[in-house]
Amino acid sequence: MSNYKIVKVTREELYRMVWSKPVTKWAAEFGLSDVGFAKICKKMKVPVPRRGYWAMIKKGIKPALPGLKSVHDPNNMVIEIKKRLPKLNSKKIRHGTETRTISKAITAAHHDASDAAVHQAVAAELDGDGAACRAIDARKSLS
């Protein structure tokens, strides 16, 4: 399973994005640095807000937006951005003499299961019998 997906964005979409909220927010959403996201904008010839723009917006001042100039290069019409998918949280747990890394999704997805059911699921995941989710689902169906 890959940890990213390809998102196609047109120049017009990118322009609307960067003028709707700060580049740092968009960069975080795509799993990029703000500098990396700004470089994409520069490559696509999309103007980005100058320093202080969002502070002015917060104060109620609406500065004029620069227009999106037309570009006749077909390579600059659409860009594919690798959007990083969020990582699953994991934690190390000791089971017998072994320490293994397991997903926290067991407890996050089934937060209402009892501690005993969670421990049973963790043990099942660690033992590798694939019964982790079944153990919690069985507990949930009994309640």
Explain what this protein looks like in three dimensions.
With 143 residues, the protein is an alpha+beta fold. The protein folds into two domains: 4-84, no CATH class; 90-142, no CATH class. Helix content is 43%, strand content 18%. It contains seven helices and four strands. The chain has helices at residues 11-18, 23-30, 34-43, 53-58, 105-109, 115-127, 132-142, and strands at 4-10, 78-84, 90-95, 98-103. Strand 3 (90-95) and strand 4 form a beta hairpin. Residues 105-113 and 129-141 have low confidence and may be disordered.
Key attributes of the depicted protein:
143 residues; alpha+beta; two-stranded antiparallel sheet; 7 helices; 4 strands; disordered C terminus
Main sheet attributes: strand count, strand direction, barrel closure:
2 strands, antiparallel
SS content category:
alpha+beta
Strand order of the largest sheet: 1-2
Shape type: flat
Q: Please tally the helical runs, counting DSSP H or I stretches of 4 or more residues.
A: 7
Return residue spans where pLDDT drops below 50 for at least 5 consecutive residues.
Answer: 105-113, 129-141
List SSEs in N-to-C order: EHHHHEEEHHH
Give the strand tally.
Answer: 4
Strand content range: 15-25%
Helix coverage percent: 40-55%
For the record, give the distance between the C-alpha atoms at the N and C termini, rounded to a whole number. 34 Å
Q: What is the total domain count?
A: 2
SSE order and pairing:
Layout: E1 4-10, H1 11-18, H2 23-30, H3 34-43, H4 53-58, E2 78-84, E3 90-95, E4 98-103, H5 105-109, H6 115-127, H7 132-142
Antiparallel strand pairs: 1-2, 3-4
